[in-house]
Amino acid sequence: MSSFKVKCLVGAVAIGSLALAVTPAMAKVEGDTIILGSAISFTGKYSTNGIHAQNGYDIAVKRINEMGGVKVDGKAYKLKVVYYDDESTPARTAQLLERLIKQDGVKYMLGPYSSATTKAAAPITEKYKIPMVEAEGASRSLFSQGYKYLFAVLSTSEQYLASSIALAAELAKQQGKAPGDVKVAMAFENDPFSLDVRAGVVDDIEKHGLKIVIDDKLPRDLSDMSATLTKVKALKPDLLLVSGHSKGAVTAARQIGEMQIDTPMVAMTHCEAAKVTENFGGAVNGFLCPTQWAETLSYSDGYFGSAADYDKAFKETFEGYEAGVPYQSAQASAAVLVWKEAFEAAQSFDTEKVRDALAAIDMKTFYGNIKFSEAGNNIAKPMVLRQIQDGAYNVVAPLEWASHKVVHPRQPK
Fold it and tell me: Measured between alpha carbons, how far is 305 from 28 in angstroms, rounded to an integer?
C-alpha cells in the first residue's frame, strides 16, 4: 500500500471519529491553503464507494499541488480537503455540513457519496450560499429544486441504463424480432438513485416499444433478490436490469450465478465499484455495466493527460484497482479540477464570485467535457455502456464510443 494511501485513509477516519470531539478553527483560506470540505461515507452501506470517491478527490488534490497549486491574485495556493464520516446516513450528512460551515468556517464543498446524502447536503449549502461541486449524486430530482449553489460533474441517473434499452431494441431488430417481443425484467432498490434510474428506463422502454414483464422495487440495503430471480427463471425475459449500489450489485451477481440465471442480457449499475469480476469471475461474463467514464475514451486534459494516463496514475497510487478504476473515483477527481478552474477564473475567494465562475465553467478533462446547465447538472458528457468480456470492461455502446462489439447472448463461464 502506498504511503499516500495510508496517510489519506488514516486522516479521514481520524477526522470522522473526532467529529463531535474537536472544533478545528478552519477558514475558507488558511495562509497559502484553500480548504475544501466533504461529509462522505467511510462507514455504512456506501462506504465502498465513499472511499473510491475520497481516493479520487485526494489524487486530484495531490496532482494540482504538485503542479504549482491554484493561482489567485498573483499568489499560489495549495488545496486541502477536510473530511468527516457521514456513516452513509443522510441526516448525519446534513449535520456535518452544518458543522463544516458554521463551526469550521469552510466555504467550499465537495459532495458526499450517493444521491440520498447529496439530497440532504444540498439544502444546507443552499441555505448558507456555499458552493458545492459534487460528483456522486446523480438523481435528476436534485436538479429540479432551483438550487443555485449545486454543481454536478456527472451525468444524471436516468441515463445510466437507457443505452441498454436502445441496445436490446437494436439487437432484436438484427434478429428479425419486433421490439414488442423483447421482454424486460427490472429489479431496482427503493432509493432515490435507483428509482431515478428506473424512471429513465421506463421512458426508454416506452420509446422503443419493449415489454415489461417484471417490475420489482426491492428493499434498501439490498441483500436478497432471490424472489425476483425466481420469477426471472419462470418468465424468461430477454433483458434483466438491476440497480442497487455496490451492495446490490454484489447480491445480484452472486445470486444470478448461484441460481444459474441464463437471461441473454443482464445490465447492472455499479459493476466496477462492487468488483464483480474479482468476486464472481466467469459468472458475470457478458454483464453490461453503465459507466460515467472509461479509460479507453478519448478525453484528455493538462492535469492528468489522457483517460488512460489517469487510469495508470491512479493504479500506481492506490492498491486494489488492478481490474479497473471505478468511475466514482474519476468523477471525484474531475470535481476537484473544476474547483481549481473556478478559483482561477474568479481570481477571488468571494463565494459569490466563485459561484458565478462555477456556473460559467466550460472545460475539457480526462473524465469528459464539463459544462453546467442553469440547474447545475453537467450537459456536456454522455454515459457509455461497457460489457464484461473475459474479465475486461470493454465499451460496446453507444457505437461512436465503442472499442469492442457486444457479445450477445452473454456467455457466462
Answer: 29
CB atoms within 10 A of CB 166: 15
Mark which of 268, 287, 307 sits at the end of a domain.
268
Largest CA distance in the chain: 68
Residue 297 and residue 398 in contact, taking contact as beta carbons nearer than 8 Å: no
CA distances from 241 to 163, 236, 351 (A): 12, 13, 42
The answer to the question of residue 47 being in a domain is yes
Q: What are the DSSP calls for 327-372, one per residue?
A: HHHHHHHHHHHHHHHHHHHHTS--HHHHHHHHHT-EEEETTEEEEB
CA distances from 94 to 112, 131, 145, 318 (A): 10, 15, 17, 30
Residues 186, 88: Cα–Cα separation, whole Å: 25
Q: What is the pLDDT of residues 18-61, one digit of tens each?
A: 333 333 334 589 999 999 999 999 999 999 999 999 999 999 99
- Over residues 157-173, the pLDDT tens digits come to 999 998 899 999 999 99
- Please provide residue 62's backbone torsions phi and psi, each rounded to the nearest 5 degrees: -60, -45
- The pLDDT assigned to 8 comes to 40
Query: Is residue 84 in a domain?
Result: yes
Count other Cβ atoms within 10 Å, centred on residue 253: 25
Give the contacts of 362 (CB within 8 A, at least 6 positions apart): 370, 371, 380
Q: What is the dihedral of CA 113, 119, 121, 123, to 10 degrees?
A: 160
